[in-house]
Specification:
Chain lengths: 331, 331
């Protein structure tokens, strides 16, 4: 049976979950046949745990060594570390190797790839729209990517077969490939992913810095819990995202400040109509989003009944979109 | 067997859940014996549904009529409507009646009670720290208040027995009474409840007003879903909270703007250390809060193992605190 050696560098929540999902894919169904997962993490304990959990088949002594043994190299470290990993593995990549990453920002990573990786390898930027406020190999799960959107940004120099391989990888772990430009990606995720973790962090920081926090925290309930959830995310990941997606995040911060000033004025004027419009609009938008977009985690209750009646599912929209994206890429 | 007639005015999520919880309490265990629930809602359909769901035993033709039949009157309308309900029921209240509300802000409500209710009745402001982004009688549930904190702000003129009755009511529905001053209450909940729904709303409004929303919304996943959850809450409730707790909310808005400016500067300076500190601190604070405070909904997975080892539970802390609060009130 065909065997494909796949290196995963960085064995945290994402790297570990990738290993679990790839390692357990049915070799008869998978385009990779049996995936042989070579893992590396600078943290030896994480690497041992990944092995113990069967997220990887073998431990490599270095990122370079892992890359040198593989046809596909997945870099699943925090963003800032991607650069040094690329520099380290570059001389060891096989002719025709596919390199893919999982970082939350893409434009910076794509520039590093062009600068550091050899022309003989193909780079496809990747970003799974799935995660958890928990981090590390212990939080890894086999179905983290199930039905999640997986953003793909192929380097313009990437070979067509390498892009196909990246897409097959995404499909093998149960995710949906979604092609877009790195700059588009970074602007969009700044709004729907980075702004949310900043607002979560703002909520926790503002309330906990207040002299009333000791008493206040006892009153905080499920609303506080959910809005603050992302403040429990990996601090290094959050820091790196801010450092590599500064301009897009700054635009959203400015928008948020403008919005808060707007609300403050409506309150000062006791402007009932403006507040009514605001909260009604936000509710409508969110309800429409909930109906259209997959947002369930594995094991959570399914979509509300009647969803089928709402026209094409987001999955169908994606498929159409993806095909057109692919065609554009292939021109 | 003893029977206590209890009026619930306003049969939405909160009023309906109160009716369900009171109506099904074991009459042999309850200090009220058999609770007879008289319901009123301006929306006749909601009232019929409440009856059909057994959240109430009888429908009253008006708030005044409901109050005239009861020993305990619960006002469970949005904040702004509390005032007119008080004016309407005032002439119909029995000698010695307890009036309690459920509104999210307390100082304004306490002023209305002093202005409008007769001295022969006792008012205790109330606010259950439980809810859902769903609203209306259909979302009502029998265990909404189970283990939730229930803030109580007795009017200084309220009779001691009336305060005892309010506390018994809270305990009967499975919640934990928590005494505090109305101004304290409003300042605290502005931070842990009102600021969260404003941030949820800000997230939805900012992203959905953006030209990229059509594409962006497809990428939004569980992080966006949770941080935006409260934007699906009742718009009238949100509006009324802004109108009746303006100064406290404005202070939190100003704090948030200052915080966002701080983050924007750290990003502009690429200040790795400042961003590290920020995200690490927020995570630590939230994890400590999760360990200490009940924040599970009925049916959700229980607390993480090992929680028992963390010293006195928040419940024990509350009990001590509550006793001391009670003593202070009784002086």
């Amino acid at each position: 049976m065909k065997e494909t050696p796949i290196a995963i560098i960085g064995l945290g929540l994402i790297g570990g979950s990738l290993g679990l999902a790839l390692g357990t894919a049915d070799p008869k169904e998978s385009p990779f046949g049996r995936a042989r997962i070579i893992g590396y993490d600078a943290n030896k304990q994480a690497m041992r745990t990944a092995r113990g959990r069967l997220a990887i088949d073998e431990e490599a002594p270095s990122a370079a060594e892992a890359a040198g043994r593989a046809a596909i190299v997945i870099i699943a470290t925090p963003v800032q570390a991607v650069r040094e990993v690329m520099a380290e593995i570059a001389p060891h990549l096989h002719q025709g190797a596919l390199v893919i990453d999982t970082a939350s920002t893409k434009a910076q990573v794509m520039r590093w790839a062009r600068e550091l990786l050899p022309r003989t390898a193909s780079f496809v930027g990747g970003h799974p729209m799935a995660g958890s406020e928990q981090s590390g190999i212990d939080a890894a799960s086999i179905d983290l990517f199930k039905d999640a959107i997986y953003c793909l940004c192929p380097d313009p120099q990437a070979r067509s077969e390498a892009v196909d391989t990246a897409q097959a990888l995404v499909e093998t772990i149960g995710a949906k490939p979604y092609y877009l430009d790195p700059e588009e990606h970074d602007a969009y995720v700044a709004g729907i992913s980075h702004l949310p973790f900043l607002l979560s962090t703002a909520l926790v920081e503002m309330t906990s810095r207040s002299p009333g926090w000791v008493e206040m925290q006892a009153l905080a309930a499920t609303g506080f819990r959910d809005v603050s959830r992302l403040a429990s995310g990996d601090p290094t990941m959050h820091r790196d995202i801010c450092l590599t997606n500064g301009p897009a995040i700054t635009r959203w911060i400015n928008d948020t400040i403008r919005f808060l000033v707007e609300v403050r004025e409506a309150i000062a004027e006791q402007n009932t109509a403006a507040l009514d419009d605001l909260f009604n609009h936000a509710r409508q938008v969110r309800e429409a989003w909930l109906q259209r977009t997959p947002h369930q985690r594995p094991g959570e209750p399914g979509p509300t009944p009647g969803r089928e009646d709402l026209g094409p599912t987001i999955g169908q929209l994606f498929m159409g979109r993806m095909a057109s994206r692919r065609r554009r890429e292939e021109k």
